[in-house]
Design brief:
heterodimer; A: alpha/beta; Rossmann fold; 8 helices; about 35% helix; about 25% strand; B: mainly alpha; ABC transporter involved in vitamin B12 uptake, BtuC; 11 helices; globular
């Protein structure tokens, strides 16, 4: 399955530090065409950092990144746009790529915000803005989609619909997706490969494999583990600021 | 026709407005007004250099301003001082050094008022050529880097992630800023160049709902300011720079009424 031509981006033992504090260390993963790889982990575990390493936003990194495509769509976790800039949704859609009107309309319709096309970006609600961000990322028909919490602030029914859309896009465009999500149910149902992060890779594999893993359960606690199985809480190590693992 | 100093000044001002319009929008969007000010203050050093070495004024201003931008970037990397403190430091020290140097150049008669506030009598046919050719080059370059520059103005990480190389666009834009200051110094004067960049763009922001319309209105605002300002300057024998900027200010004030109206309409 994982023949080399299908690889879109590959991280080899990658890490990133700011002022001697490691945000994430020793991450190896790869995203292939048509596959969804999901990063999970608690706050501050290095999920967004890993995505930014893969995207080449962080350049002074440990290890290496191999990127095999330049057609990338990105939905960042946080986006602060300065409203001194008059920007309509339709202008924003054209930010990094020239697209014709039909392509824009199609993408906006898919995420359910076509009616907002001529609105000022600053006037949108959080959920509406998130849908526009997703529409922009998919409209350029990328080879690789990097989605950092793409449905934050979206209402419950919309959340399910958008995850279904993401799955559909991955199938139709045969693009690879690197997804960061807090929603473990979604992760378990739609993902091909899960990487569980906590400053380093705790465990990785198919959703079922990860769910059975002790470290995963240690990280996500009783509730998450009860979804699939019942094991003892066993976190046998702590993480230092240097990203090292210390046995208790 | 070009023998008439006023026609030359008018043509120079029109040429400058076409360039300050779009650049001024980016100055507002990227919050660079103090950066523009700093580059403009350093222009005085460039002028003194031009006089001592018998060098072209626009060229030496361009060189000095670009060097100042490079020094600023280095200082930002090497010190813990905040950006605005560094800008103030460079702006005022380069202005002071420039004035001290002028004090030493007793063999040349300087029109300091003209340097600081612009002088329409000073625009030569040569200057016109520099403004129009230089301006065309600036606009062409801006068109070339528009996409990455605009995208990174909206969001740096998006532009970087999707492969637009925003750092290169930013570096080129810095050079364009130095260039516009170099070509417009004679018209507006170095103390008021930033005003020419930001006031028409600020007026345009009040009236526009998309980036394109803001750029066009900013050019229109600049043109009106220059034309009305220069006629006033001729009529009342005032410095050209202050007359142009005052006109721009009046246009800005008018644009505020438009905002009031549209807020009323919304309610």
């Amino acid at each position: 399955m994982s023949s080399d031509q299908n690889i879109l981006v590959k991280l080899n033992n990658a890490g990133f530090s700011i002022k001697d504090k490691w945000l994430v260390k020793g991450v190896s993963l790869q995203v292939e065409k048509g596959k969804i790889v999901t990063l999970i982990g608690p706050n501050g575990s290095g999920k967004s950092t890993t995505a930014k390493i893969a995207l080449g936003i962080y350049k002074q990194i440990d290890g290496s990144v191999e990127k095999y495509t330049n057609k990338i769509g990105y939905v960042p976790q946080k986006i602060s746009i300065d409203w001194t800039l008059p920007l309509r949704v339709s202008d924003f859609m054209l930010l990094t790529e020239e697209l014709d009107n039909e392509t824009i309309d199609e993408a906006l319709s898919l995420t359910g915000v076509i009616h907002l096309k001529n609105k000022n970006l600053g006037d949108l609600s959080g959920g509406e803005f998130q849908r526009v961000l997703l529409a922009r990322a998919i409209s350029k028909k990328p080879d690789l989609l990097v989605l950092d919490e793409p449905v934050q602030g979206v209402d419950f029914t919309g959340e399910i619909a958008l995850y279904e859309l993401i799955k559909k896009i991955s199938d139709e465009l045969n693009c690879g997706i690197l997804l960061i999500s807090h929603d473990l149910h979604t992760v378990m149902s739609a993902t091909d490969h899960v990487v569980c992060l906590n400053g380093h890779v705790c465990c990785s594999g198919s959703p079922m494999e990860v769910a059975k893993n002790n470290e995963y359960k240690a990280l996500f606690g009783e509730q998450a583990s009860q979804i699939l199985s019942r094991y003892e809480h066993r976190h046998d190590h702590i993480h230092t600021d240097e990203g090292e693992i210390k046995k208790n | 026709m070009l023998d008439d100093f006023f026609i030359r000044a008018l043509l120079a001002g029109i040429g400058v407005s076409f360039v300050t319009g779009p650049l001024g929008c980016f100055v507002i969007w990227r919050r660079l007004s103090y950066f523009g000010d700093t580059l403009a203050h350093s222009a005085l050093l460039g002028v003194t250099l031009a006089f001592t070495m018998e060098f072209n004024i626009a060229l030496s201003v361009f060189v000095i301003s670009s060097m100042l931008a490079l020094i600023l970037i280095q200082l930002q990397k090497r010190t813990n001082l905040p950006g605005d403190a560094l800008l103030g430091l460079l702006a005022h020290s380069s202005l002071a050094v420039g004035l001290v140097v002028i004090g030493f150049l007793t063999f040349i008669r300087f029109d300091i008022m003209g340097l600081l506030f612009g002088d329409i009598l000073a625009v030569s046919v040569n200057d016109l050529l520099i403004i129009w050719i230089g301006g065309a080059l600036i606009l062409l370059t801006l068109k070339f880097i528009w996409k990455p520059l605009f995208a990174s103005t909206v969001n740096y990480e998006l532009a970087e992630a999707e492969g637009l190389n925003p750092d290169r666009a930013k570096a080129i834009f810095t050079i364009l800023m130095a260039a516009i200051i170099a070509i417009s110094i004679k018209m507006v004067g170095l103390l008021l160049i930033t005003g020419m960049l930001i006031i028409p763009a600020a007026m345009a922001r009040n009236l526009s709902s998309s980036p394109q319309s803001m750029v066009i209105l900013s050019i229109v605002g600049g043109l009106l300011s220059v034309i009305i300002g220069l006629f006033t300057s001729l009529e009342f024998n005032t410095s050209s720079g202050p007359s142009i900027i005052t006109t721009a200010l009046l246009l800005f004030i008018l644009s505020l009424f438009k905002i009031k109206q549209s807020i009323k309409l919304k309610n």
